Amino acid sequence: MPLEPAANVLSQNCPSRTVLRHLTDRWTPLIVTVLANGQPLRFKSIKEKVEGISPKVLTETLRSMERDGLLTRTATASLPPRVDYQLTPLGLTTVEPIRALRLWAENHLEEVEANRQRYDALVAA
Amino acid sequence: MPLEPAANVLSQNCPSRTVLRHLTDRWTPLIVTVLANGQPLRFKSIKEKVEGISPKVLTETLRSMERDGLLTRTATASLPPRVDYQLTPLGLTTVEPIRALRLWAENHLEEVEANRQRYDALVAA
DNA sequence: GGAACCAATTACCTCAAGGTAACTAATGGG
DNA sequence: CCCATTAGTTACCTTGAGGTAATTGGTTCC
Predict the structure, then answer these.
(1) Could you state, in order of their start, the residue ranges of all structural domains in chain A?
(2) Interface test with A, best of B1, B49, B108 (most A CBs within 10 A)
């Protein structure tokens, strides 16, 4: 059994780059965030919590995550129809990294904005 | 002193969303990765380590990171010219979250690819 | 007999991120 | 005289992610 060559996102053709890009897609971190506790959520409910996402893009992003094995999709043929999405064990392992990234953005917002103002003032001068 | 309203990336107009998007720009995690040890690197050196990035986009991304206060740019008027980039203390606080994300991508690559094959086989059927 | 409900799908459009290629300034080296 | 070097800039183009709006289907509610 040969050892796999180590994946390395710095390498031009390493497929781990696409994995990283999926993980950092515009809406993926937000969807992981609302599913983070492991409980299933319905399509409509996700759409409400992730403010501003369109149904088309939500469907696309959920499909992509399902394909990568991050979540499961369970359709119930009830009336009205019901579809539940739930993170898989693999998906749950992304929760902590994504949570850290999200918290960084939320907690350093003011500092970043202050830096921008300083920079823009310098450049204008 | 009024308390700041808590930032929340799930809110449509919360400016923390743009901070998160910057952090997850196509090249930002890779640039943070090569600067992660805190040592300054020259433009050319970054360009070589982050395989495939064009000089234009590297300049743009570095400028954006400098504006947000993640790194400093130090130009030396020597010949040939020399410009060093180095993570700031703020930038260094992104290293761990980004490292976790990168490691996830690299370490779960095979599992993700296996899931994709399974999914595509099912959908084709 | 229409409206509401849910989870989409479809067709279409837009825009900005990113890519490509050529060019610049300043100077030392052959 | 011309090339190499470094860190870009400029003009231009492409692409694909994402947005918008309308539509579907089956059933119950009014």
Answers:
(1) 16-124
(2) B108
